[in-house]
Design brief:
Distance between the termini: 67 Å
Strand order of the largest sheet: 2-1-4-3
Number of strands: 6
EC number: 1.3.1.93
InterPro entries: 3-oxo-5_a-steroid_4-DH_C, SRD5A/TECR, TECR-like_N, Ubiquitin-like_dom, Ubiquitin-like_domsf
Helix content: 55-70%
Membrane topology: Multi-pass membrane protein
Transmembrane segments: 305-324
Pfam family, one: Steroid_dh
Structural class: alpha+beta
Strand content: 5-15%
Largest sheet: 4 strands, mixed
Oligomer: single chain
Order of helices and strands: HHEEHEEEHHHEHHHH
Length: 348
């Protein structure tokens, strides 16, 4: 359409059969058309700005990026990666100040009120590894370790051919297997992670925690000298464990449904038709609440001190995570329910 209009206008201007007035009008149209193009180009050049990316450790310039008001932080990360192949986009944390808050990938230059010549500081998060990879490794380990110790290997117990297993030891092995098999399946089919990667150092730290505690608990529960509590206590603990595992799974499915596939959308979690999710009315992180209850039930069922220590350490860590998430929810959503606690209803 534009080409046809321009061709017709030029033909009018260059053909003698048209009046001088018509030719003047055609010439004016051509001048206005060219002027508008040059004006648009100038405006685009004015709106394009340069952003300096500095190393947060020493303020050394890592890259100079070009951006427009609609450009996002992720766009800048892509340019930094082009200038420095070691700094993948998941390895970069961009901030307005050296010790400031990490900016979101979706933040735009305009929303941050950045001007030409602005500076951003980059913290190198180090080598990264996928969240799913870490979860699979840290959850597969306990499953294998527990079942191996459950066989009473000679290296731990010596000759145990004449020693028998208690019913509690069998139930405990089944519970451990169910828990970590559930975790593996959730990682593959349920979880939608808000971040694609984490520092690779977390892989070794997390595996040492889960694998080490598993060996510690399994050694005592499967020991030939292990003394089981009463079966009434065992079955009560088992009931609590099953209830908590179902609750934990229900919360994970609920959280999955909050986030559309392939996005990092965050919404206020709310109960759904599943009765286990009613705990959202009281705490921000009911998945942690159910997780803690699972291991407390396992400890009660086995009456095993190492299991109780594992539960206590896990509860401490999950409480820290829950408090952080609870603060973030209240900060992000102005209408966040005021009656909710972080992990323990009415208390914490």
């Amino acid at each position: 359409m534009l080409r046809k209009w321009l061709h017709t206008t030029l033909r009018v201007h260059n053909t003698n059969k048209y009046s001088a007035k018509t030719k003047l009008k055609a010439a004016t149209n051509i001048v206005n058309f060219v002027s508008n193009i040059r004006y648009s180009q100038i405006i685009d050049q004015i709106r394009v700005m340069e952003i300096e990316i500095l190393d947060a450790r020493n303020s050394k310039v890592l890259a100079k990026c070009t951006a427009q008001p609609s450009s996002t932080i992720k766009d800048l990360k892509v340019q930094v990666h082009s200038a420095n192949k070691k700094l993948t986009i998941h390895r970069q944390a961009l901030r307005l100040e050296i010790r400031g808050k990490t900016l979101k990938d979706s933040d735009t230059i305009e929303s941050l009120d950045l001007r030409n010549g602005a500076k951003l500081y980059l913290k190198d998060l180090g080598p990264q590894i996928g969240w799913s990879t870490v979860f699979l490794a840290e959850y597969a380990g306990p499953l294998l370790v527990y079942l191996w110790v459950y066989q009473r290997p000679w290296i731990f117990y010596g000759d145990t051919t004449t020693a028998s297993f208690t019913t509690t030891a069998h139930i405990a092995a089944a519970c451990y297997t169910i828990h970590y098999a559930k975790r593996l399946l959730e990682t593959i089919f349920v979880h939608r992670f808000s971040h694609a990667t984490m520092p690779i150092g977390n892989l070794f730290k997390n595996c040492m925690y889960y694998w080490g505690f598993t060996a510690y608990v399994a050694y005592h529960v499967n020991h030939p000298l292990f003394t089981s509590p009463s079966m009434a206590q065992v079955y009560a603990g088992l009931a609590g464990f099953i209830f908590s595992e179902l609750g934990n799974l229900s919360i994970h499915i609920n959280l999955r449904n909050l986030r559309p596939p392939g996005t990092t959308v965050r919404r206020i979690p709310e109960p759904d038709s599943n009765p286990f999710t009613v705990l959202f009315n009281f705490v921000s992180c009911p998945n942690y609440s159910y997780e803690v209850l699972s291991w407390l039930s396992f400890s009660f069922m086995t009456q095993c001190l190492p299991a109780l220590i594992f539960s206590a350490v896990g509860m401490y860590q999950m409480t820290i995570w829950a408090l952080g998430k609870h603060r973030n929810y209240k900060k992000e959503f102005k209408d966040y329910p005021k009656q909710r606690k972080s992990i323990i209803p009415f208390i914490l």
